[in-house]
Write a structure and sequence with these properties.
The complex is a heterodimer of chains A (about 110) and B (about 110).
Chain A lengths: L2 E3 L3 E5 L4 E8 L6 E6 L6 E6 L3 E5 L2 E6 L4 E6 L8 E8 L7 E3 L3 E6 L1
Parallel strand pairs in A: 2-11
Antiparallel strand pairs in A: 1-3, 3-8, 4-5, 4-9, 6-7, 7-8, 9-10, 9-11
Chain B lengths: L3 E4 L2 E4 L5 E7 L5 E8 L3 E10 L2 E4 L6 E4 L5 E6 L8 E8 L9 E2 L3 E5 L1
Parallel strand pairs in B: 2-11
Antiparallel strand pairs in B: 1-3, 3-8, 4-5, 4-9, 5-6, 7-8, 9-10, 9-11
Classes of the chains: A mainly beta (about 110), B mainly beta (about 110).
Chain lengths: ~110, ~110
């Protein structure tokens, strides 16, 4: 089966850098997704990692270590609009059309 | 390009009533999904479909039925609503193929069962 752990809540200051961690357990690895979900809205895709290392997309970067079952999302130059939940998700090993989502990390950006 | 459209956006039902939630996507995606999202529990898969005419159970299928008669539509039915089904329901779709295909979500349906 799939198991995903991520912190429930985090608080960070506007302009700062924050790292949101995700650990996962899966019997067959098919990559890892990060989604952003603002309160009352739909999740939207941020990134996908399948190889080890850091992938950068503007202010957002995502890191993966397959050997450690670990990923993090790095948000730089935080803005108030980055206040949202960040969901870590992994495709199921038995058939990657299904994806297991973590409960999400609620990030609050304060002035 | 509308993406994934869910109707209705809000609904209040009484216990025992039935209703159908409609999801429509215009991206020609093969895969479609229904999730529910509850505080502290994240997104949980109810049912999914890998193509027209096919459906399968997800993590929490009890009390729900689905149909996919057309590729672009995925319907979620509640035959006899219960207060435990009060939730936010999201529909999503994705391309078939590689595991790197992200899911595209609708705006959600907020359902309250009294």
């Amino acid at each position: 089966g799939q198991n995903i752990d991520q912190p429930t809540e985090m608080t960070a200051t506007e302009g700062a850098i924050v790292q949101i961690n995700c650990t996962y357990q899966t019997s067959g690895f098919n990559g890892l997704f990060w989604y952003q979900q603002h309160a009352g809205e739909a999740p939207t895709f941020l990134s996908y990692n399948v190889l080890d290392g850091l992938e950068e997309k503007g202010r957002f970067s995502s890191f993966l270590s397959r050997s450690k079952g670990y990923s993090y999302l790095l948000l730089k130059e935080l803005q108030m609009k980055d206040s949202a939940s960040y969901l870590c998700a992994v495709p199921n090993s038995g058939g990657y059309q299904k994806v297991t989502f973590g409960i999400g990390t609620k990030l609050q950006v304060i002035p | 390009n509308a993406g994934v459209t869910q109707t209705p956006k809000f609904r209040v039902l009484k216990t025992g009533q039935s209703m159908t939630l409609l999801c429509a996507q215009d991206m020609n995606h093969e895969y479609m999904y229904w999730y529910r999202q509850d505080p502290g529990m994240g997104l949980r898969l109810i049912h999914y479909s890998v193509g027209e005419g096919t459906t399968a159970k997800g993590e929490v299928p009890d009390g729900y039925n689905v149909s996919r008669l057309k590729k672009q539509n995925f319907l979620l039915g509640l035959e006899s609503a219960a207060p435990s089904q009060t939730s936010v329901y999201f529909c999503a779709s994705s391309y078939r193929g590689q595991s790197n295909q992200p899911q595209h979500f609708g705006d959600g349906t907020r359902l309250s069962i009294l």
